[in-house]
């Protein structure tokens, strides 16, 4: 076989090999692009998952009931208003500044106005940071419980003298009054005749008692 025959037979093979090489390179480029895209998408999703995990760990980690003390320092679980490590307004203000807290709401510093003011001196700081907190009391409003708590007993002596003796006493609130033990045994002890009769007045109404004593007849 001369050189002409070799060139005739090898030329198609060389072209086929060249075409195969080009296709292989194109497939490799496409595959590399797909792998890079998958890697980028995986990294983005992993970054989102990592942020969610960090947020879950941040929300579920142990927190101190006191904003001035850490979890290790707050062994007795005391609240912020009863902190013994920072008892006065000056030490609390210094600790709040060291922790980067807002002086008004005692939360991490923020740009927007939280609108919190001191109810004692009306200045722009928290009530726990007020120097006048120990000298002036904050007004407290409590709801008074209304019930059978004020009783008025009137005992008539059996001697017929017509003299009435009134005993006033304050008993604990009981929804089952007058059948409770507190109603039958007042806290004020008074010596009475053997079988006295009495009544009690609640809300300007007279009620008779069906116990062991005889009710007073009007």
Automatic annotation (TrEMBL):
> Superkingdom of this entry's organism?
Eukaryota
**Name of the protein in its database record:** Uncharacterized protein
List the source organism: Ancylostoma ceylanicum
The coding gene here is Acey_s0635.g925
